[in-house]
Model the fold of this input.
Amino acid sequence: MESNGVNLAISSLIFYHHIFVSLLLPVFIFNLFNTFFEKNYAKLNKKIWFCMPLIFLLLSITFLIGISIWAMLGFEFSWRIVAMLIILFVILVCEIRRKNLLKTARISESGMKSYVKFCKLLYSIESIILIIAMGILGAKF
Done:
């Protein structure tokens, strides 16, 4: 039987986990908004580049808090945890892919057009996945 202190610590960590996951959504929506309304490629790159460290920071904080919660629960297997890890991994890989794509795309205007199209799709999918995950997986343990 777990003590009240442990239960309080777990519920606090879950609260912080939800907060940091929720902070990802405005960043994705900000980048999505910029891809639709910013017509200057240099300004668009600066705005997206400015948000990139924030995305990686929030993903890493979310991951570390999630691992801490999982450790406090005794590393019990749960499909919800597997789903959260998969979602985190997919978002991380997509962001790394987007960053690497920019390196080659900024050479030409046609490359930038395809990059912007990719970013629109990427941030739309990431936002939808995050909203669905927060709705389905966000319930209490």
Q: What stands out?
A: The helical segments are 4-37, 41-72, 79-105, 109-136.
